[in-house]
Amino acid sequence: MFTPATYNITSFEEDIPKAQKISQKEKVDLENLLKNEFHEYSKNNICLDIIDLNEIKKINDILALKIIASVDWSDNEKNWIQKGIALHKNKKKCLFCGNKISENRFLELNKLFSDRVDETNNLLVALIDDVSKRIEFIEKNKFELDQELFTPAFEEEVIEYNIKINKFINEYLAYLKDISRELKRKKENVFKVLNAVSQPNNVIQTYKKLKSESQKIILEFNKEIKEIKKSKDEARKKLLLNEVASAIETEDYRNLARDVNVEREIYFKQNKKLQDIKKQIDEVNLEIQKLDEMNQSESKAVKEINDSLKNLGNQSFTLEKANKGYMVKDLDGNIKKNSKKKKIIIFDDPMNSNDDTAQYLIITKLQSLLKNKSDYEYEQIFILTHNTHFYVNLRYRWWREKNKKATFHLIKAARKTEIKKIESENEDIKNDYDSLWHEVHWLYNNNQPQFMLNPFRRIIETYCEFQNIDPKDFYEEDAEAQKLFNANSHFIDDFYIDTNGKTKEQIMEKVARLFEENNGTFHFEKHWNNQNR
């Protein structure tokens, strides 16, 4: 009665936390509530089409109509002639004497009456038919409320309404029958003037009031049924949770719950093992994928190396796959043995023309090469680069292990290159921007003002970009400086000719003033003073 058709073990488990016992009395009350089989009242009340005053006036007009004949006969004589004309319509002989009736005879008889006789008869027929249908409709239908479909609370109100509607229907039906009888009398003697029929007082208003009363009863009843339906839903839920509460108190349930918990724990453990195995499989597959990609990359590199080595003639050799890496063979297929000479490894700008992924792999491999010298059996290693990013990342923790390591900065000016050894971390290059300040510092110390303009132009461009300053605004107070830095940075001439005409001090004075005018004094002094420590 109260368990849904779709209720299952999952539903039962979800209801356990909500389970609650109820008293026996409450249980009986709820079960009785569920036995209530009343539903919303959906019967359509039959609507009456009440004859209005205009229709009554039309009926009374025809009842009071007086038709005048051309000959002064009595009403009985008029009716007798009128019936004779009707009986002999489309007849060639008289039904009484058998003599032939000419068309002229019919025309003469019709002239005895006005044309309104036919019109009146036709209208009477229509009115009689309309009233007869109204009477038939009322007699065939039931206008009272069905008392059996209402709850006892509405019994008195429904009975009272039914008495009133039945009384009204009976009075209205009698009124229609009076109208029908008078119309038929007029039809029998169309020349007779009859008394008018009167409409009962407020018949239309009375019917509207009764109809509104029935609608109100139905509306209130349906509202109560909806509340009962909600109460029944709540009753089903309470009874269901009461049954759940009773079930979980049984010994059978406790034993079953214990077994389920044991099996659930076993399931979770096994599932965890399964997930761990799947994770390991995924890791292995990922490692296999990486190895495959590496192998493909290595194979491609080996092929390119071997193709390039073919151009070396008699000194040519090839690389071939071995168990642990690759081995070197000469043209005769002999494996080249390791030389006992000390090895020196040189990398010349290894980052050139490589994408980000390749650069990362190269940096990682070179770091391993630097840290694990004994594994690679080399005496010395030289790494040359123009790439500041590569330089900074390769030298991770460089200054913590300074033994047997050295860094040199090659600075080119004119046709000479100075080799400067970087002695400490403070002197070291941090990024591309710092390297420009390093370069200016070296050029200043070596009295090379003509080469200071280009790095300063790049310093100012970088500063403007990071500070979101328009370069035109930066040079606003010194148009000469803008022309000086931009024009001479791209000038091609003899390296020994001073093209800008400024000393190193004058250039530094201009740069300091430009930074001061753009609120960058602290920035300038920090970088310039740091380079002069």
UniProtKB/TrEMBL annotation:
Keywords: Coiled coil. Residues 128-189, 267-301 form a coiled coil. It holds the Pfam family AAA_13. Residues 9-334, 335-515 form the Protein CR006 P-loop domain. This is AAA family ATPase.
